[in-house]
Structures are given as structure tokens and as C-alpha cells.
Write a structure and sequence with these properties.
Two copies of one chain form a homodimer. The first copy, chain A, has a four-stranded antiparallel beta sheet. Helices cover 66% and strands 4% of the residues of chain A. Chain A is mostly helical. The C terminus of chain A is likely disordered. The first copy, chain A, starts with a helix and ends in a 5-residue tail after the last helix. The first copy, chain A, folds into two domains: 370 residues, no CATH class; 203 residues, no CATH class. Chains A and B meet through helix 11, helix 14, helix 15, helix 23 and helix 29 of A and helix 10, helix 13, helix 14, helix 22 and helix 28 of B.
Amino acid sequence: MATLSDISVSASINSLSAFLFLVAFAILRLQPMNDRVYFPKWYLKGIRENPSTSGPLVKHFVNLDVRMYLRLLNWVPAALKMPEPELIDHAGLDSAVYIRIYLLGLKIFVPIALLAFGVLLPVNYTGGNFSIMSLNMKDITFGEIDKFSISNVPPASKRLAAHIIMAYFFTFWTCYMLYKEYKIVTDMRLNFLASQKRRPDQFTVIVRNVPSDPDESVSEHVEHFFRVNHPGQYLTHKVVYNANKLAKMVDKKKDLKNRLSYYTNKFERRPNKRPTTKTGFWGLWGKKVDAINYYDEEIDKLIKEEKAERERVIGDPEAVVPAAFVSFRSRWGAAVCAQTQQTRNPTRWLTAWAPEPRDVYWNNLAIPFVELSVRKLVMAAALFGLIFSFMIPIAIVQTLANIESIEKVLPFLKPIIEKGPAKSFIQGYLPGIVLKIFLLILPMILMQMSKMEGHFAVSDLEARSAAKYHLFLLVNVFLGSIVTGTALEQLKEFLNKSATEIPRIVGVSVPMKATFFITYIMVDGWAGVAAEVLRVVPLILYHLKNLLLVKTEKDRDEAMDPGSLLWPITEPRLQLYFLLGLVYSTVTPILLPFIIIFFAFGYLIFRHQIINVYNQKYESAASFWPDVNRRIIIGLIISQLSLLGLLSTKKAANSTPVLVVLPILTFWFHKFCQNRFESAFRKFPLQDAMIKDTLERATEPQLDLKDYLKDAYTHPVFKGGEVALMDIDEEVDEHHLVATKRKTSRKGSQAGTSEGSPEDRTGIYAV
Amino acid sequence: MATLSDISVSASINSLSAFLFLVAFAILRLQPMNDRVYFPKWYLKGIRENPSTSGPLVKHFVNLDVRMYLRLLNWVPAALKMPEPELIDHAGLDSAVYIRIYLLGLKIFVPIALLAFGVLLPVNYTGGNFSIMSLNMKDITFGEIDKFSISNVPPASKRLAAHIIMAYFFTFWTCYMLYKEYKIVTDMRLNFLASQKRRPDQFTVIVRNVPSDPDESVSEHVEHFFRVNHPGQYLTHKVVYNANKLAKMVDKKKDLKNRLSYYTNKFERRPNKRPTTKTGFWGLWGKKVDAINYYDEEIDKLIKEEKAERERVIGDPEAVVPAAFVSFRSRWGAAVCAQTQQTRNPTRWLTAWAPEPRDVYWNNLAIPFVELSVRKLVMAAALFGLIFSFMIPIAIVQTLANIESIEKVLPFLKPIIEKGPAKSFIQGYLPGIVLKIFLLILPMILMQMSKMEGHFAVSDLEARSAAKYHLFLLVNVFLGSIVTGTALEQLKEFLNKSATEIPRIVGVSVPMKATFFITYIMVDGWAGVAAEVLRVVPLILYHLKNLLLVKTEKDRDEAMDPGSLLWPITEPRLQLYFLLGLVYSTVTPILLPFIIIFFAFGYLIFRHQIINVYNQKYESAASFWPDVNRRIIIGLIISQLSLLGLLSTKKAANSTPVLVVLPILTFWFHKFCQNRFESAFRKFPLQDAMIKDTLERATEPQLDLKDYLKDAYTHPVFKGGEVALMDIDEEVDEHHLVATKRKTSRKGSQAGTSEGSPEDRTGIYAV
């Protein structure tokens, strides 16, 4: 086990790397050539434009203004300055609520840490379990840090009452904060929805599993069904074509166009030599041809194929999938249809709110109900396999944490790794970073699995991926580290144990793994968050694209990759910190400050990123909050059960009935939250729909809704645009607005005053 | 522990008592004077009338036709003969589906028993664990019955694989049968709903938690809200008055009237002496007065008070509770309103389908949301207390089962109880019957608790009571018997055990308690069901009332108490048999035949009772089935966990991962059933509503719906009728129909032919 000095080494390494990342960021962000990497959000909003072209050429790329470098940290107050309502306006509600999770972490853990340090630390430290044994046993099992943990309290001690009382207090405090936050987020969501402008999804419902009819096409069937069952409300509908093949062609065309412009650029720079390429895979082998001509021809060929396919899809009734977007005359009609059951068979004519057009995941609209539930079962089994086959590599990694094991397996390494810094590095840094690499490739697999499950909205896909990732982190990082980390050979034995033994085993191991998790928090939390702000990968990619592909301003816009929050990865990770904080709050409170630093640092960094960088792909109006709330409650219950398991081995058996009450109460709290708040995230109240409808009829009596909705739910490939760009192009309203703004607020980023419009004013936050 | 001979004694006693009950029933039911006790359903239907008054007087009371007595069992084929569609027509869907639960028990357990007897019994019997020890240890711990149970298989034996494989088979078979049954019941429900006649609740929604408005009364507020938010659909509404005090007065008046008619009858029989009574409590003390005059005056006084109260309630705006019944122009409008959320605050304007008028529980309509959730928490805590304070008396009762304990405590009893039959009686019969008495008073308490929880439909109240009772039986009868039954002194130790140990303790004790549960099945199941058919209490009460109160035919109608199914008691008990069957199917399969006999016998008896006796208070169209399905699944999961616990002590640790899969799969099956079927029980599809609406508009264009709904949801006390009689009077349509039928089918019970209307034909089943 690691000692306190190991932890200090690790803390220094991680703080240093975090600091270096921040310094690098502070310098890089000032260079005009990186402007589009660090402030893409403002470019997308049309407020920021390319740095002025006056002055010497070098000024385009490097910032020579020395005074700027003196204010290395001036982005910090800028990131914190923007008030929340403007943040919502600027970046959307999802982002604004996302950073509230970090704030919630602080609200929960700062008071808990203060109390734990005031009460539990003295109780533990004077517990005296190791005061006698520590001399000879220290090197075998426990490190110094255990003096501050519950391990230092001898079995059957009266002192354990303090931990039980604290467990109650921590539970009530956490629930209280969760309740308050749920209430706030619910209000934010409802106000946000109420103030939204007209959007196609407000009028539209998605209907799936349209039963086939021998006499009618899908389109006729849908129209008749809704005309009959929603008379007076039905307006129009849009059938869904299976255009997956066509979408692939469009993607391929885009790729070919990129290659063409690469070679065109190359030729323009060196006009004396026509670039060549090979026709085979990735241009690596095959016949050597003139690149520009070759890709020109390929593109022409593809355009013809694409045209044929486009005609086939539209003409072929087989290409129509049994799903449709049905639009209503009013929001009220759509709200009614989305919330009611249409027929007696709950597997047919399934209606739900249509996702935003840019949120639709088109490939999955055609899956029938039975296949869906089979897919879900198969994916659940696959997830189970994935989670439990990952156990093995993780367990191997964890043995690295145990320096004694390495010496036993590879004795010749002993002289090297026994040296102070090397030993500390291996014990403090390596296990965390290897685990991290494992976890990097995982989210893509999980997203793919979610797609297989058949959800039809990107937001759903992300929510499901997040749920899977959360489960994975729970089992493999938390449970896996705790149980197998103690010793690899325990794994097999553990599998043979009765299922009822697990909480006890977990409870016992928890205090022993405190140092590992402290290291993990520093590597994954501190340094990881600092790396996020530096945006190394987008930085390199942007400059590469700029060098090879960019010709026009439009190309440069496309080369810019603002990225987004990556909800399915970041949220479950955040949950891991909540879990760790809650589990260790009663056991080893010394871990809490590390968590608090993580939350504070993350809040700062992500607030900055949201303001300046990320461009969310869709807006779900914080519909993820019930998941966040539920997962924190899961963490709370796990912390209670592990304490229960731990105390049952401390010969404090009387405590079991007292502690069993806690998870029950917590579960009741969960149910209460569900009843009180969740419907605000799942349903759309009729009164609000009616108010918006009435208002609209009064202000815009001439509105031709049918025309407005005409192309909203057309598959992106039929709009003639590029698939990948649809995310941005789709925001017709917003774009339009921005285009007119551009003229008035060209210097918005410098000249913003408090009298300006919100868009103007937001300029001042992007220093 | 009981031996096989104890069980045979118990089986004989119980079979005999069951047989005696049946003989008594067979004789009593033939007596004309008991006709209204054993065939009240037919009287209520108007098909059966008083026995003809010709012939000697004695024939009115006693059946002298000897031939009838020779066919003692001719009610059995009669009970089985009525086909299901007619049964639904005759007794309602709830009853028809209820007896399907017994059938489901047979469908599940007969194949399981066959397989268990074919495979597990030989495996266990030749296991040989006790073949050596049985000589000296038999009298201490195990009885002969254990030779057929898993206890006879030695630890770590390969034979245990048979039990695991069987556990898999039993699980899949049970789930398959559950799925099939769920599908059938769903179809039955939907067809039943589709074929129903026009009823007020089809057009009506109940809205609760109407927010108070300073400018408007509740009635105005409701009208404005629904006029605005359901334009074109809103028809009318009915506010709810807090008439609880008035209802009490009406009840009291009825009681006084009963007393008056008692004394009037008395006076008529002995005209020479005016009856007297005392004015105090129950006429036991106080001033002596002339009874008839006294009650005449009291009734007059009460009528005046009642009138004043009636006027106060209608006039006083404070007497209006913030709830209302809102009726719509169409079923479609009601379906929309019931299924949607009205406002952004999910605690206000809560809408739900209105229960049938006779199903409304008026007292609870006024409770606000926050109070509701507090009430629920308080009742949950009370239920917890109730369940765990009941542990103690049950544990005391259970020690009675252990004859050795009695001898230890009361050594002087030894010579008496050591005698063969006495010992068998004590061991085999007593524990079951004492437990039974405990359980008799419980349902009333639970119903009272459900009322406190604030449900507003009688069907909900019954469902919630059933849920509580189910939990109670699970903890106290099942777990309580298993754990504390082994030895009372283990109870305290058990409470101090870690929560994780419980499945193991349960698993180990399960095989030891097989004999106890066999006895329990015979007492509660066999004899209990037989006692049900005899209807001792209603029999006595009817004759008492007949003697004291009845003057007119209407009085006789009122004296008749058909009773109803008592869903909140019978269903959870049934579930206990499912649980026992599933738990013991792998452990001690010898218990299964007792379960099968119970289900078969219960099916027969309850089918008879439903046809001839019970008059259901309301019709929920089998809305309870999701509960039934869920509880059988809970039983299945408990059986899997207890097997898991048992095998983990049998040194068959490798089996744990294999067996852990089962509860997971079972849970997935539960979720699948929910998705596939449950909405048919909770929602009302718009298409069906639209079809019925359209049909009605076509066939009855002149229908004045407002007039039809006018008084449907008036509090019964405002209808001038008696509260208690509302249950029957409310069935206006049916009654009306029956009244016209009466003339045509006076001799329906004898002359029914297959060409007759359904009502006519049902006559032939009441022999």
C-alpha cells in the first residue's frame, strides 16, 4: 500500500502536469492562429471573425503583445463572469445545467468535508487501532493514511457510533441538496420550454410500428388513422424513407471532395507537378493516375449513382419504413397524441414526441417492436459480457499498484523500481493512467451498442450510452478496483463466493483502497480536466486541415471542430466522483478535499469551454436531470451498503438495523422525487401548449403552419446538404438571425456594452 | 419435527373437516329457507324468487324431497358447466378472471409436480445423507419427510445439478404460463371494455388538487380551466361536497329504522305488550321508555337535522372540496384528459379516469398532494411496525409446533401430550389454526390503513390492502415461520445478523419447515375453502335478521347478504400458495400435491360461489391482473434466492453464478410483461374510444349526454337513497333491464333453454 509520501509525489506530479497544461493553454489561446480552436463557439455565433488582416503577417499567427502574456489567468474571471440566464441564452440549457452538476458536487461535499474533518478525523486518529501494531505491521498491510480512516478504530468500539450518526447526516444533507437542485432544474427547464420560439418538434409526433395494410400505403394508412382518431387536429405527415444507402453515398462524396481539394491545393502550391494517386485502398497501391482528374471522375460517377439511388428511394414503396412524423395544427394536438395510447395493442402505432430534427437518428426508425425487445435483451447480454470480460485486464492493471507483486513476478526489476521516485511513480501514477487508456476506447463501443438497441433520437442514444458507461464504471472501476485490487488471486475465490457476501467484501476493502482512489482522482480528475482545456487533438487536427484542405472561408469554417460536451462520457465519470465522495465520506474523509478540488476545477474549466468552445448538437432542455439525480442516489445507497458491510465486520452488529433504515429512506426519497418532478421531464403539459397556441394565433393569425413544417422532418440527404453539416445548417432561424446580427455587431467582441442585445453583450466574456 | 404419521393425522383431520363442511353445505343448500343464503346472486338478478307458497307450510323451510338428497354432489358439475363467456356475462369479468388464478395455479404446478416427482424425488431419496445418521438423529432434527427433500442429498454432491436444472426448467415453465395467461386476460379485458354499454365513467375524468383561486369558486375555476384547455370537448362537471357528516347521519337513520322495525315486529307478534327500551348506550341503561314512540321521535329529530345539514353542505362554499368530476362530450375527450398532464406542476390539476360511480370512495377526495405523500410515508412506517410487531406473537405460536419446547416449559403436561393422537393434533393442527385466527382480524386494519393513505376508489383501496396483506404474509407467515420457527431464541440473534446473511438463513431453514407448511396448506387451504362454501356467518345473520327485522319482501332483500370475493384477503393468500409451491418445487417436491389439491378444490368452490352467491361491489375489468402477475414473479424470485442460499451452504459454491442468472432473467421477464401488456390495464386507447363514440353518434344522434350524466356522480347521500344500498341501486341500467326481464323469465331457473337470452340461459346453472 502507498504511504503518505507516495501520495505527495503523485499529488505533485499531477498538480504540476495540470499546471503545465494550463500554462500551455494560456499561451496557445492568445495566438491568433489558434483562435478558431479555442473560441469556435463565437465564430459559429458569427460574433467573432478572423483576426484583422492589417499589420505584419506574423501577427496573423503569433501574438506579440507582451502585455497579454502577463495576464495569463485572465480567462478565469471571464469564465465565471457570465450570469446563468445569459449562459443559457448563449450555450443552451443542457450546457448550463451540466455545469450545475459540478456546483452540486461542491454544495454536497464542502459541508460534508467540513463536518467529517471536524468530527470523524479526530475520532479515527485517536482510535488507536494501529498505535501499537503500526511499528511492525505497517509495511505489510496499512499505510499512514489509514490512521485517519475508520480502519484505525478498533472493532466493537463505541466510536463507531460517530460514523453511523455521520452517515445519517450525510444522507439527509445529500438528499436535501438533491431535492433543491431538482426543483431548480425543473423550473429552469419549464421556463426554458415556455420561452422557446416556434420549432417544428413542438407540433410533431413520431409514430412507429405502423401496421402494414394490404390496401393502403404507409402514407395513406398514417393519414387515415390520424384523420380519424385526431379529427380537427391532424395537419400533415412525413413518411420516413430508408435512405441509409443514400446517406453512405453522400458521405463518400464528401470524402472524395476532401481528397480532391487536397490535391487541388497541392497543385496550386506547386503548379509545376500534377499530383498523382493510386486507385487502390487509401491510395496505397493500384494503378497510378492523375489525382485531380481521377477524383473529378469519381465524384461525377458518384453523383450519377446518387441521383439514381435518390430516385429509387423516392419511387419505391419498399423504401418507406413503417414510421412517420405526424404534425398537428397545434401544440395541444401534438401534446395529446404524444401522451396517449392510440390502439389497444401497445406495440403498434407507438407515438412519442418527435425529437428535434437535428436530434433524429434516422437509421433506427424502421425497427419493429418485437425485434426491439430482442435487440435490447441481446445488448444487455453483450453489456454483461463486456463488463465482466473487462474485469480481467483491469485486474492485471491493478496488480501494478502493488509494487511487491511486480518484484515477485519480475525480481530483476527490483533495483530499479525500489528507488524512491520510480517507486512512487509506479505506485502513484501508473495504475490510474493505464486504467484511463482502457476507458478511452470504451465509449465508442457503448455508443455502437446503444445504436443497436434501436433508439431513434441522438439524445436517447447518448442517455443510454451514459447509462451503460455508468454501470461499467460502477462495476469495473469502483467494485473492480476495490475487490480485485486487494489481490488478483482473490478474484477467482470471489466469483465462487455466495452472492450475499459481496457487500461485506466490498465494505472491508473500501478503506484499503483509499490511496488508489486518491491517485485516480488526481490523474483522471485534475490532470484530465486540465488536458480538456488544452484541446490537443482538435488543435492538431485543425492545423492539419488548415494546411491541407482549406481554400475558402467556408472550408475554414468546416475545418473548425468545436466539439461538444460528450455527455455519455463526462456524466458517468462525474458520477464516479460523487460515488467515491459518498463512500469515503464516512470511511476515509481525507479523500474528500481531492474530490472538492476536482469539482471546483471542473466547474471552472467546463464553464470556460461551454462559453468559448463547445457547440451542442441538440438541445434536450436538461432532460437528462432525472438520470443525474437517480445516479447520485445510487451512489448514496452503495455508500450506505458498503458502510453496512464494513461495520458488520467491525463487530458492531447492533448497527445493522440502524443502518438498514438508510437505504430504505433513500429509496423512498428517490420515489418521491420521481413523483414530484419527473413528469416535467417526460410529458408536456396541455395548459402550456394551449397558452403558446393561443398566443401564436393572436400574434400570427396568417401563419401557414403546413408550409413552415414542410421540410422540417425530411431526411437530411434529401435536402441536398451534406449530412455532417446538417447539425449546423438545420438551425435555420438562429442562423438567419445571426446573419443579420453580423452587420451590426462586427466588433462585438471588443465593443460590447451593457446596453447591447444579449448576443452583443456575450461578446465581452470572450476576452 | 413432525413425522410422516403426524402429517397423515393432520391430513385425515383436515380432509374430514372439509368433507363434513361439504356434506353440511349439500344438505343446507337444499332447504328452501336457506335459499337466499346460498343463491343470492340469482335473487339479485331477479331470476329466482321465493319458493312457491303452495303445499304444506313445512315445505317453506325444509326440503322433504328425498331424491334431492341422493344427488348430494350435483352442484359440482353445475358449477363447472357454465362456459366462461356466460360466466363473464353473469358475474362480471373480475370474478371470471379471479377463478382463472386457480386454474393458472394448476397449469403451473401440475407439470412441475410431475417432473419433480419423476426426477427430484428419486434423486433425493437415494441421496443417502441420512441413511446412516437417521437411526440416532431422527428424533432430534429431521423427520421422515426429509428423505424426500434436498436435505437428503449430501453436501457438494453432483446430484445437486439436478436441482439446478430443474430450477431453470420450473422458472421457464412458470414464465411461459404467466405470459400466456397475461395475454389471454389482456384480450378478455379489451373485449370486455369494447362490448360494454354506455356508462358515465367512460365520459368522466376525476380531477384533484384544484388550486384555490381568490376570485373564483372551485366550480367556476374547474369550468374555466377545462373550457380553455379542452375546448370543444368539455361538457360539464360536478363538484364534490364534503358530505362525510351527512353520510354518518344517513347511516344512523338507517340504524334507527332497523331498531324501530324490530320493535314494531315484536309488538305485532305480541300485541298485548308495548315493547320498551332504555335511552342509554345500546339500550342497556337510562330511562325506560316506550320503544316504538321513542324511535319514531328519534327518527323525526334526525330527519330534521339531516335536512339542515343537507342545506348547509349545498349552500356553504367551504363544504366544496378541491376536486371535481369533469365530463366530456365524447369518450375520446375523456381519454385524452385522463392520460395527459394538465399543468407544469405535476401536483396540481391531477386527472385520472373516474372510477365507476359505485366504486368512488368519497371520503378521500379532499386530500392535497403534500398531505398525500406524507400520509403514505406515515402509513408505510405504520405498516413496517405492524409487520414487525406481529413477528412476536407468531413466533410464540410457532414454538407450539415444537412439542419438545412445550414439554420443557410445562413439564407437567408431558403425560397428556405425549399420547399419540394428542401429540399429532398439537403438532399438526394447532399451529396452523392459531396463525389463522391472527390473520382474520388483520385485513380490516390494513383496509383502514389504505383508507388513510387517501385512495379515492374502492378498487384502489382493495388493491392497496391486498398489497399490504401480501407483504405481511410474505414477511410473517413465510419468512417468519421459516426463520423463527426453527427456534424462538434464534430471533434475537437473527436481528443482530448482517442483512446479507438472511437469504442463506432462509435457504437453510426452508426444507426443515416443509411439514409445517403442508399442515398450513391443509388447514388454511383445504378446510378453509370448504368453510367458505358453507357461509356459516351469513347463514346465521340471515336467519337472525329474518326473525327480527323482516316484514316485507324488500326487507328480506336487504337481509340477504351475498357478500363479495374479498379480493384484498383472498388474492394475497392465493399468492402464498404460489410462493410455497415455487419455493418447495425444487427443495421438497412432496409438498406440491397438497398445493395442487388446494388449487383444484378452490377452483371448484369459488366457481360455484361466483355463480350462485357473490355480488361484486364494482367491476374493474380485471385491472388487478398486473398485480397478480407481479406477485407470482416475486414468489418466483424468492424461490430462486432461497435455493441460492440453500445451495451456498451445501458446498455447491460453483452453482452461485449459474443460479444468479435466474432472478435476473425473471426480472427481465417482468419488465417485458410490463411493456407488452400493462398499458392495456392502465390506459384507454384513443382508437377504441373513437370507435365507440362514432358508433354512438350514428345510432343515437338524439342522445342528451348532459342529461344522462346529470346525477351520475352525485354523492349518494344527495340522491335520497340509503348509503349502504347505493351499491345495488346504482346499477340503474342493469336493474331496469332485469325488472323487464322478470316478467318474461319468471320460471327462468327451471325453464331455461339454449335459445333464451343470456340472462335466461344462466338460470340453468343454478340447480
